[in-house]
Design the sequence.
């Protein structure tokens, strides 16, 4: 399992991982209409490239990309997904450790995210606390997620 920084050539594979994870893992906690709105079939690669390049994006690979996560300079963890066949195998933990190291180097003392129902237990196990439950809208569908934070001292 190798962790590295995102490269533009990764984009299509990351988009597929995002789509597949939501449609095959998150479907257990959300309806078909909700996952279709969250991860539509017709995503724009240029929009993804711009977004992935604008953040500190890390990928984990093992012959293929099996996870990715994004950190913004203010401590926000945006997209954070692990391949459906690599759930609960340390991929997310590896990405989060790198995100925490990067946050430390940036002087960030708090990480925060909007975790899905599916991802909430992972983030809780990594020391995040729920600040609030919220409902967000994606393409006309309402989805529940959780604003979560983790404070840490800059060593």
Sequence:
């Amino acid at each position: 399992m190798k962790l590295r920084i995102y490269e533009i050539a990764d984009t299509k594979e990351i988009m597929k991982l995002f789509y597949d994870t939501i449609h095959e893992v998150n479907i257990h906690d959300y309806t078909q209409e909700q996952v279709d709105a969250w991860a539509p079939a017709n995503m724009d690669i240029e929009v993804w490239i711009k977004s992935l390049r604008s953040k500190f994006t890390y990928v984990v690979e093992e012959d293929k990309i099996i996870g990715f996560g994004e950190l913004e300079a203010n401590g926000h963890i945006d997209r954070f997904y692990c391949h459906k066949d690599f759930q609960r195998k340390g991929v997310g933990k590896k990405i989060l450790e790198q995100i925490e190291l990067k946050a430390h180097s940036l002087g960030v003392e708090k990480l925060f995210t909007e975790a899905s129902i599916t991802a909430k237990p992972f983030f809780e196990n990594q020391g995040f606390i729920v600040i609030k439950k919220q409902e967000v809208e994606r393409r006309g569908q309402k989805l529940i997620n959780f604003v979560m934070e983790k404070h840490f001292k800059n060593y």
